């Protein structure tokens, strides 16, 4: 058995100071220590996939990052682990507990996942080993992890068994308390659906408001990223190619890591619905440099325009209720202008912008690969 602080201190020597996760009873001493250490950043995520994406965003911003989860939640993290960190080559450290381990008595819901946890990690091509259980094993384990992440630029996992860490009391007042927007800005949607803005018109205005030297644009997967690429392929842009719903959580990690840059996340209605709980995480943790825009055309446009349910959803009211400092709705470019000018408040800004479906017939796919996009962005961020 080890003290949680022994591992955390050794990890800090390798630069790990940003943690995002979802608790597990096996993780309790470890996560309690992380939460209570003022030298570390901790984000309490709504689910394990968002923890991976938030940690990935922080890594892009220059913070070595750890995603923490119970193995029963590993399924929630499969998409970002296979289509974000693997595809873009983002080398997180993953700490996953091993509930239901063979030969260990546990609850019935952990039985199958306990049997296949290692197989799942291996299938996802995520190298793993047991979390060190003795103090002298910590440094060699972290050396192996660091050697892999440096050579491959992909994640490495530690699987934590029961009673690995000695008890550690929780000493923390909880997440930050925010003064949320007192009301949703903007009138009700006024344009008939067919007369709404196109996605290209909205993205062109985003480009106008996001200069290279002071901002980053994260575009959700599907037509949004492809259309932004077609409009203007710039070094301060990242086009998500998978991990549907994770653009906002990735933007959160990047915004926390790089407070001097405005981070603009351009989301879609289907993606926002997929990880709706993440709005609460952003409402709690988002700094003033994060702007979250949901372009809502009420369909899954890139897969054949099947309807979403957003005709019945008030995203702006949800954002206001979950703690965003600025929440607005609209269907005019003026609403976009106002949201992009709302920086400086204690909390993130949110806009629910109605647009019409459709895209140009010859919409290209990016010719630059995801690792090339990410490397270009990180080199751009490294410039003064």
Describe the structure.
This protein is an alpha/beta fold and 384 residues long. The protein folds into two domains: 4-160, Rossmann fold (3-Layer(aba) Sandwich), CATH 3.40.50; 193-382, 3-Layer(aba) Sandwich (Rossmann fold). The protein contains 15 helices and 14 strands. The strands form three sheets. It has a six-stranded parallel β-sheet with strand order 2-1-3-4-6-5, sandwiched between helices. Strands 8-7-9-10-14-13 form a six-stranded parallel β-sheet, sandwiched between helices. A hairpin with a 5-residue loop joins strand 11 and strand 12. The longest helix has 18 residues, at 135-152. It is globular and about 65 Å long.
Present the secondary structure layout:
Elements: H1 4-13, E1 16-21, H2 28-36, E2 41-44, H3 48-60, E3 64-69, H4 78-83, H5 85-88, E4 93-97, H6 111-123, E5 128-130, H7 135-152, E6 156-160, H8 199-209, E7 215-219, H9 223-231, E8 237-239, H10 247-257, E9 262-268, H11 269-274, H12 278-285, E10 290-296, E11 299-300, E12 306-307, H13 315-322, E13 326-330, H14 333-340, E14 349-354, H15 370-382
Parallel strand pairs: 1-2, 1-3, 3-4, 4-6, 5-6, 7-8, 7-9, 9-10, 10-14, 13-14
Antiparallel strand pairs: 11-12
Helix pairs in contact: 1-7, 3-10, 8-9, 8-14, 10-12, 12-13
């Amino acid at each position: 058995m080890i003290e949680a602080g022994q591992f955390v201190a050794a990890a800090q020597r390798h630069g790990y100071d940003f943690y995002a996760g979802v608790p597990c009873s096996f993780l309790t001493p470890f996560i309690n220590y992380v939460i209570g250490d003022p030298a570390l950043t901790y984000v309490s995520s709504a689910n394990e996939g968002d923890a991976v994406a938030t940690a990935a965003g922080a890594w892009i911003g220059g913070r070595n990052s750890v995603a923490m989860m119970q193995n029963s939640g590993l399924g929630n993290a499969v998409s970002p682990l296979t289509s974000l960190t693997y595809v873009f080559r983002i080398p997180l450290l993953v700490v996953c507990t091993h509930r239901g381990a063979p030969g260990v008595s546990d609850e019935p819901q952990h039985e199958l996942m306990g049997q296949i946890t290692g197989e799942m990690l291996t299938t996802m091509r995520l190298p793993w080993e047991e979390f060190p259980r003795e103090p002298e094993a910590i440094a060699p384990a972290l050396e192996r992890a660091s050697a892999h992440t440096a050579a491959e630029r992909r994640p490495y996992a530690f699987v934590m068994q029961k009673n690995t860490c000695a008890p550690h009391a929780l000493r923390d007042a909880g997440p930050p308390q925010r003064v949320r927007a007192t009301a949703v800005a903007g009138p009700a949607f006024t344009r008939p659906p067919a007369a709404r803005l196109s996605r290209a018109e909205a993205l062109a205005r985003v480009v106008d408001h996001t200069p290279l030297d002071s901002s980053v644009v994260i575009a959700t997967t599907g037509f949004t990223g492809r259309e932004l690429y077609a409009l203007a392929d710039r070094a301060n842009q990242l086009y998500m190619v998978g991990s549907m719903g994770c653009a906002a959580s990735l933007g959160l990690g990047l915004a926390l890591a790089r407070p001097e840059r405005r981070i603009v996340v351009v989301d879609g209605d289907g993606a926002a619905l997929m990880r709706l709980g993440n709005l609460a995480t952003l409402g709690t943790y988002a700094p003033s440099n994060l702007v979250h825009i949901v372009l809502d055309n009420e369909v899954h446009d890139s897969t054949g325009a099947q309807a979403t349910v957003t005709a019945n959803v008030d995203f702006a009211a949800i954002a206001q209720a979950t703690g965003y400092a600025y929440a607005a709705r609209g269907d005019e470019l003026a609403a976009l202008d106002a949201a992009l000018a709302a920086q400086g408040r204690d909390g993130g800004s949110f806009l629910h912008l109605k647009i019409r479906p459709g895209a140009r017939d010859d919409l290209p796919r990016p010719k630059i690969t995801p690792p090339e996009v990410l490397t270009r962005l990180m080199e751009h961020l490294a410039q003064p």
